[in-house]
Amino acid sequence: MRLLKELIAIPSSNPHVSDKDEREIARFLREELENSGLEVKLQQVTSKPYWAYEGGRSRTRPNVIARTGTKGGRKLILNGHIDTVSGSTMKHPFEPRAEGDRLYGRGSADMKGGVAAIVAAAEAIQQSGRNLKGELVLSLVVDEETLGKGTIDFLKAEQGDFAIVAEPTQNTLGIAQAGYLDFNIYSKGDSRHGQTTLPSAWASAFVEATNVCNKILSDDKIIRERRGRLGMETTFNFSPTTFTPPPSLAWMTMEEFRVNCLLGLIPERTLARSARTAKAIVRRIKDMIRETNKEGQRNTFELVDLKPGFVQRRNAYTKAFENAMQRVLRHHKHSYVLSFCDATYIYRANIPTILFGPGKMELGHSTNEYTSIRQVKDATSVFAHAIDNILG
User: Fold this and answer.
1) Are residues 369 and 386 in the same domain?
2) Helix (H/G/I), strand (E/B), else coil: 59
3) 361 lies in which domain range?
4) Which value, in Å, is the radius of gyration of the alpha carbons in the chain?
5) Do 280 and 195 have their domain in common?
6) Model confidence over 36-50: pLDDT tens digits?
7) Number of domains present in the structure of the chain
8) What is the C-alpha to C-alpha distance for residues 23 and 114, in angstroms, rounded to an integer?
9) Are residues 137 and 36 in the same domain?
10) Per the omega criterion (within 30 degrees of 0), is the bond before 252 cis?
11) Which of 132, 206, 277, 354 has the highest count of CB atoms within 10 angstroms of its CB?
């Protein structure tokens, strides 16, 4: 656990959502991997947010790209992101603390546990002197928590035969990842005394926006449950972003209100079908808003981003990984990942992609983030056996 504790102790919050960045942890990982005999280079990545945070300032920091093995054969990519969300919501985010099987700290689950496992596995393979009949590439990237520019830039210069993204899946084999629809509902209301507002008058922009959100929640063509053989479900969360005037209890109506909505998109069997389904959902929400506006509301749909997910079909590489899981864990249980991550970018680059890593995804951005120490150790062994199965 030395490596994971050292990774947690280095603040590496994404600079677009905090006052930190990933440069220090990149330097640490470069030294760590070079000392183990891997060839390492830093790839500079510049990203600029499309939202108004920090004035849209661009930031440059490095991916860590490490490799070992023989060029010209198969190429296996192990991908992990080295940025985290801000640690401001935690009491001691960068002081790793072990309690039983739990290791607490910002990034422990999302996803420094996974990064530690793939780094330790690569180091073990390197130190064993195993003659790989292909190339192992570690893609330790920046910017996953916001724009994904780290993996996007990595893929501009690199291709591969198979990729494993070490996001937290509790050491199950993630063969599907949800996409997402990020959109705003902007509503306009009237300024008036709150107790003079009739339910049918729609005077409050806050009531108008939440009315649309409630309609989305009750629409079974949008919110789907237990769909497909993996039983994936639609997720939906929304949060206020701007409002005028400032909150003043219910005694005054809100004249303007914008709510940001994040709708999970269950992937279809192909990317093309996933894209068609996503566009159909957008049309349905727009139609819903037009209908509410006929009732006197004043709502506007604002698309922020749309990214369909994917489903990875079984192939020789997934079978080899299942064999590694069976050897270490005595199972090769399949699962899915509801939170969008860099895996979709890799899959879209025509590289077969799965997800596997220690920890629970839902703990990733929480104030009580932790990962399982046992799962990190087991994941390290699975990765080492998978490397041997695929490249040995």
Assistant:
1) yes
2) strand
3) 2-177+310-391
4) 23
5) yes
6) 999 999 999 999 886
7) 2
8) 19
9) yes
10) no
11) 354
Alpha helices in the chain, H assignment, sequence order: 2-9, 23-35, 113-128, 149-157, 205-217, 271-294, 316-329, 343-348, 373-391
One domain, residues 120 and 251: no
Residue with the two structure tokens 């996503």: 278
SS3 of 336, please?
Answer: strand
Q: What angle do CA 147, 153, 156 make, to 5 degrees?
A: 140
- Report field, pTM of the whole predicted structure over 0.85: yes
pLDDT per residue over 107-159, tens digit each? 999 999 999 999 999 999 999 998 999 999 999 999 999 999 999 999 999 99
Comparing C-alpha atoms, which of 161, 162, 191 is closest to residue 175?
Answer: 162
Closest CA to 9 of 140, 141, 103: 103
Residues 267, 126 share a domain? no
Among the listed residues 18, 25, 22, the one whose alpha carbon sits nearest the alpha carbon of residue 4: 25
Amino acid at 205: A
Joined together, the tokens standing for residue 219 give 């629409």
Residue 200 maps to which CATH number? 3.30.70.360
> d(Cα 78, Cα 40) in Å, to the nearest integer?
14
Q: How many residues does the chain have?
A: 392
- Please indicate, yes or no, whether residues 87 and 166 belong to a single structural domain of this protein: yes
